[in-house]
Amino acid sequence: MSRIAGMLVAFLCFVQTAGAMMAERRATVPRPDVESIRPTPPAPAPATTVPDGQFKLTADSEVLLNGRACEYKDVPKEATVVRIELSADRKTILKIEFRTKK
Predict the structure, then answer these.
(1) How much is the pLDDT for 21?
(2) Which residue would you say has higher pLDDT here, 12 or 94?
(3) Is the pTM higher than 0.85?
(4) What is the 3-state secondary structure of the chain?
(5) Domain residues of the chain, as ranges?
(6) Which pLDDT belongs to residue 36?
(7) Looking at the predicted structure, is the pLDDT value of residue 10 above 90?
(8) What distance lies between CA 79 and its chain's CA centroid?
């Protein structure tokens, strides 16, 4: 008797889930109260592009070659730029680091 009762319960559970799987989905209508709760995507970060024109190297600019201070005119042509620090106007060089291949 318990087997028949167990099969009946299992059958009823299966019928309910099978009916839900066969039903068509209703199209969801956007609700304004729910839309206002959703978080807005973050604003894109400002682009960090190189400004138009040339950078200005002043007498106060610090020039480093392989970690040592030097004059800009002493930097060899094959040296590569490792880092540049710019001022707030994004045109004046505060510090520029070069490295040569060893």
Answers:
(1) 65
(2) 94
(3) no
(4) CHHHHHHHHHHHHHHHHHHHHHCCCCCCCCCHHHHHHCCCCCCCCCCCCCCCCCCEEEEEEEEEECCEECCHHHCCCCCEEEEEEECCCCCEEEEEEEECCC
(5) 56-99
(6) 59
(7) no
(8) 31
